[in-house]
Amino acid sequence: MTTVARTAPGTSSEPGISQGVRNAYETELYKLMSQLTTRILFLVCAIGPLAFAAILKVQSGTPSDALFGVWVHSSGFAISLVILGFAGSWGFPIVAGVLAGDLFSSEDRHGTWKTILTRSCTREDVFAGKLLAVGTLAVALMVILATMSLVAGIALVGPHALVNLSGVLTSPGRMLALTIVSWLLCILPLLAYTSLAILFSVATRNGILGVLGPLLVALVTQLLDLIGKGVIVHELLIGSAFDGWHGLFTSHPFFGQVLVGSLVSLIWIAACLAASWRIMRRRDFLTGVSGRGPSWTAPIKVVAISIVVVALLALGCGVGPTGVTAYRVAYAMGREFNNVTLLQQQLIGRRVPANARLDIEPNCNRRASKAVGPGDWNCTVYVYLPETNAVPYQLTSVEYDVSVQYNGCYKAQSPPAFLGGPTMLAAGGRNVTNPLFIVYGCFNIL
Amino acid sequence: MYIRAVDAVRATGLVKRFGTTTAVDGVALSIEFGSVRGLLGPNGAGKTTLLRMLFGLIRPDDGTVELLGRTFDHLGGDALDGVGGFVEEPSFYPYLSGASNLRLMAKLDGWHAGSGEIDDAMGRVGLAERGEDRVSGYSTGMRQRLGLAAALLRRPRLLLLDEPTSGLDPAGTRAVATLVRELAADGVAVLLSSHQIGELEKVCDSYTVLRHGRVVWDGTVDELEAQAPQSAYALSTSDDARALELAARIPAIRIQPAARGGLAVAARQDAMDELVAAFGDAHVLIRRLELVVSPLESMFFALTGEHDAAALDALEPQQLADTILAGA
């Protein structure tokens, strides 16, 4: 005789979560983990960083367009941070879409709403259970990706010090802490994308739109980042919330973007989930698998609304204070050039006094009709070198092509004729990354 | 033993509109414990909409539902404790096995089903050997059986079944009928919606007939047989000529030679009893007496078809059979 443990619905031994929600949560977790797509996601997050690091290990090239990309052969933390950058742009939207984009619409496709809603659980239970399950898996995937990226970087490259976004060599311990914090800061934006995928899934009842929705939003975010000089609309996009961690890697950390990004993520989460629940609560469950096929009316409405929203966002991108200005670019470039020049001197074996500073005057101009905003910039750094036997100063200048993003991060590259190639010989004959060849930095746009 | 003072289902004044169409219009329904009620109606009569409202899958625009004595808030939950069944064809997660699906259903009900419970439920519907197979490989009939297993797993006190024998072979259909009667004998209230009138006749104690969203008839089997128009029979005797003479003496009997041999008879049950007795007295042996159109079928046709009861009573036997069977 089988023993059966029955618990009265609606009761729980743990405060806060009802038994019904826990039952639905465990059910949804089991269903999600039984699906091939979820298992593939876990596999990719576990093995992907190792494969990425292994590929970088056997080739000399670097993903230099990504922040810290030029340092992937020098420090394992750079590998984790490059992966974090890719994940913020594309990886997390994909994870959110695949995990949550079909979470509700699959019940329509399989005709199983009537199966689960005729058991002893409420719509609230099912809704909350699904949210908790998908949130759990999303965070679990992020933790696995973060852990494996660190493991891969440290194992294949080493836990070495890394040049931060102000051009200062930072200790491994501090880098490890900052990297972990950076990954953790991405939890809220990831959950925001997940909530958006849930809304797509609930509103359209179409798994394709649900899965692709977050990815399309990420794409639109990237495109909107290229236009307009105002910060308001940009900061309201989920994708921008993934940029908050950049400010932690400067010598004078700024936290405004972290706070704004977290707040914006919470607003997205609340808005998407409230809208999803409103739809779910009011819905009549009419058709089963034998009924009419999924309606395309809702998807078409969603697409039409999305187009209007994107158009309005594009128009609004110029609204508000300007984030990227010539002063900010020049100030950041000048400070960073000072730091990486001193670092280069140290690398080639010269003694650099503590608190040494170069006499520098940077001048930056945007290569377009508008003098402010993200895009291609040109910076000329004038360096006044002290001469011991002649005139007081010798003036020299260094040209940098600077690609500035909306979020205040930039990549500056100098032609090899000025400062040498991507690598150089350090003291002791080691071949190391030339810190002056490609410079990454970030400044506060708020 | 259940308290019989409370009906298993008590629905009053249920209304559901979709745009300008009123799918269910003021329906009242009650089912006692231990009884099987058949829910009948042509396509579009509102049977499935009514079942969906009982399950809380759609909200009524008006009216109330009480299941097992509990007022239903139309959003699921513990109001459905003790209520099993399905609407339209049962649906499950195709990437899971039948047993796993049942385990999930039990989990949603708030309890952990052991393998013994699952095996027992699967065994009762003839799926014992296929429990670990993925549902994606199940036939329609097997999914139907799994739906019954999922309903039984809850140990229901009220069973709401929509076309439960759809896709089943004759043996499966008989097994379902037996199962329903066994459950009713144990005190379970059953609402059975089906297009297969013949199957309902074998198990139902009472009927509710819907047309255009309204209840057009509601009553017990006895009431139905008393009110039904004439039924049609196929009759074959040892002496058909003599049988015609005997039948002609009973005014309520209409009889004629059938096109394919034998005799076609149209009569109500009491008249038919009188005819059989007359055959006995006259030593006319009955070799075949088959109910071609049952009281339920003729009643259903009268309530939902183009002919009313009086018109059906006026039809000759062969016409009656042809008319009703053509409309079935």
Overview of the molecule:
The complex is a heterodimer of chains A (446) and B (328). Helices cover 54% and strands 12% of the residues of chain A. Chain A is an alpha+beta fold and 446 residues long. A five-stranded antiparallel beta sheet of chain A has the order 4-5-6-7-10, with helices on one face. In chain A, a hairpin with a 5-residue loop joins strand 8 (423-425) and strand 9. Chain A is elongated. Chain B is an alpha/beta fold and 328 residues long. The two termini of chain B are 40 Å apart. The A-B interface holds A 1-10, 19-20, 23-24, 26-27, 30-31, 34-36, 110-126, 281, 284-286, 288-291 and B 52, 55-59, 75-78, 80-81, 83, 85-96, 100, 104-105, 107-117, 150, 154.
Brief summary:
Chain A has helices at residues 19-34, 36-58, 76-100, 105-110, 113-117, 123-156, 172-185, 187-204, 207-224, 232-235, 238-241, 256-282, 297-316, 326-347, 416-419; strands at residues 5-6, 162-163, 169-170, 359-366, 375-386, 393-404, 409-413, 423-425, 431-433, 438-442. Chain A has 446 residues and is of the alpha+beta class.
Number of domains of chain B: 2
Largest sheet of chain A: 5 strands, antiparallel
Beta-strand residue percentage of chain A = 5-15%
- Following the backbone from N to C, one meets helices and strands of chain B in this order, namely EEEHEEEHEHHEHEHEEHEHEEHEHHH
Total of DSSP H or I helical runs spanning 4+ residues of chain B:
12
Spatial separation of the terminal alpha carbons of chain A: 68 Å
Integer-rounded radius of gyration of chain B: 22 Å
Tell me the domain tally of chain A: 2
What is the gyration radius of chain A calculated from CA atoms?
26 Å
Query: Which CATH top level class of the largest domain in chain B fits?
Result: Alpha Beta
Q: Please name the two chains that share the biggest interface, counting residues whose Cβ lies under 8 Å from a Cβ on the partner chain.
A: A-B, 46 and 41 residues
How would you state the average pLDDT of chain A, rounded? 87
User: What is the subunit organization of this protein?
Assistant: heterodimer
| CATH fold-level assignment of the largest domain in chain B | Rossmann fold
Low-confidence segments of chain A: 1-14, 288-293
Number of helices of chain A: 15
Q: Could you give the order of the helices and strands of chain A?
A: EHHHHHHEEHHHHHHHHEEEEHEEE
Secondary-structure-based class of chain B equals: alpha/beta
